[in-house]
Amino acid sequence: MSQDNGNNGNGNSGNGNSGSGNNGNSGKKAEDLLRAAHEEGELGAAALGALAIPDLGAQIQAGLGISVDDVHASEVVLVTMMPDDSGSIRFAGNAQAVREGHNLVLDALRASKQPEGILCHTRYLNGHILYPYCPLDRALRMDGQNYDPTLGTPLYDQSVVLLGTVLAKARELADAGVPARTVTLLITDGGDSGSERSRPGDVAALVRDMGRAENHIVAALGLEDGSTDFRAVFRAMGIEDRWILTAASSATEIRRAFQLFSRSALRASQGAASFSKTAAGGFFA
């Protein structure tokens, strides 16, 4: 892994894409949403503690995107991706395959029976926001200009930020009377090598509480590097085996893995019953 876990050349950690519907609220609102989730039993003390990090509220807020007033669906599915932008992706020659995989997911979701009820958000592994939550038709495609993997692998730190964003957005929608279900994909081609604040148990606390709520799917994809035991890494982060994928370091296998995720995300977007069946069955439901 590249050793630098700072911001990439595409923008600062926590920057939203102004063209994708950033709602401009302060970090305090995100903190309030998460605190309310704790008070109502959706988040336990361990999960809330994992989110109690200085400046985390502002990072989460930057991903919340579209105002609930601009959501016109009666229910919503949040599809969230965290592509790895570490230097080893580029060194392995996999940058284009990751771009294509992300874009394949967006294309597949357009076949949903209710595409207007899908909100998408992509935040790279080093914190750059490609786009905050926005309607599917406004989600940006990854290309050579907005994705140039050169950084490190702060897997635990950024997984906490991403899952906190998922939880805060789902809570914000629910508070406005819009039920939300979520499908999230974490992507890495190696183990953590840069987290400064969070540990696997912090991620696991969030994943466990999300699983208990029965309206969240958290999946992970490990791109083989020849040495990392991705199942062990993801299990330590609380991710269940049925939602763990690994792919050989080749364009064909990476695209195949993204195709599996896209099918799961599409099934999950078809309604409550389909979501429940997908969540119970995993990638091969």
What does this structure look like?
- The two termini are 33 Å apart.
- This protein has a single domain, classed as Rossmann fold (3-Layer(aba) Sandwich), CATH 3.40.50.410.
- Helix 1 crosses helix 3, helix 5 packs parallel to helix 9 (251-268) and helix 6 (155-175) packs parallel to helix 7 (200-213).
- It has helices spanning 27-39, 45-50, 56-64, 87-91, 95-109, 155-175, 200-213, 230-236, 251-268, 272-281, and strands at 76-82, 118-123, 129-135, 180-188, 216-223, 244-247.
- It contains 10 helices and 6 strands.
- It is an alpha/beta fold and 285 residues long.
Q: Please identify the structural class as seen in this structure.
A: alpha/beta
Residue stretches low in confidence (pLDDT < 50, at least 5 long) are 1-27
The rounded distance between the terminal residues' Cα atoms is 33 Å
Q: Sketch the topology as an H/E string, one letter per element.
A: HHHEHHEEHEHEHEHH
> What is the gyration radius calculated from CA atoms?
17 Å
Overall average pLDDT: 90
Task: Summarize this entry quickly.
The protein is of the alpha/beta class. Helix content is 41%, strand content 14%. The chain has one domain (21-284): von Willebrand factor, type A domain (Rossmann fold), CATH 3.40.50.
